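Narrative summary of target 7.
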Amino acid sequence: MTNFPPQHQDRDPGLEHEMDPRPDYAPRFPGSGRLKGKTAIITGGDSGIGRATAVSFAREGADVAILYLDEDEDAEETKALVEKEGGKAMLIAGNVRSKAFCREAVETVVAAFGKLDILVNNAAHQEEKEDLREISEEQLAKTFETNIYGYFYMTQAALDHLKPGAAIVNVTSVNSYKGNDTLIDYSSTKGAITAFTRSMAMNLMDKKIRVNGVAPGPIWTPFIPMAMDAETVAEFGSQVPMKRAGQPNEVAAALLFLASDDASYFSGQVLHPNGGTIVGA
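Modeled conformation, tokenized:
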């Protein structure tokens, strides 16, 4: 059963290097070259699911561009982990709420690596509010502009460079399917991401670009001590059938599968690493 030390971070976004215990990002198996020669962009790639995905992709042969807001220490650590796996790594700091930043980031990656094969839309924002009336215009705008506008902007920019065989993987959430009474705006954006994933899969089918999603349940990432009070953190994840929170590397395995040619017959689908919660597909 989950039993984390009570902890809280006042900083938004949260920081992985201040978490206790540190999340488990490490891939569990040796690489087999499943992404050899590929270039990937991962938004929110500095920590949590993004870090685990970056390291996993690098182990499988990819070069990785890590987009992040301002968590410099976490980002530098992730860059070093990617390079330790033998991949090239690039850090690009900025805000996916800006269409101009998204466009410039993609152009920078393509100029440096020569191409783009995989886009992982992962950056997100959440704030808990128990009453809908407590959600301010500022919070609503920040949540939607980060969680769904950013996915649109990054995908729009990437489409100028993605070729047949490319893959887009969007991180949605179990809350897209079951809702969450204190994450109403966040859950709404995650529902939009699920619909965006299915729509783009159909839109890009003839171009042979696959678009899929991953809908994690409770995962031990910097979101948690940042968004929750210390006592709630201590019991985080205990509500799911497996009675524990997941680790980022348990989600990254799903993203790796969908990004690789192992998932060549998957498009418009969502995988559910959520600790056993049964939801509609």
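The first strand starts at residue 39 and ends at 43.
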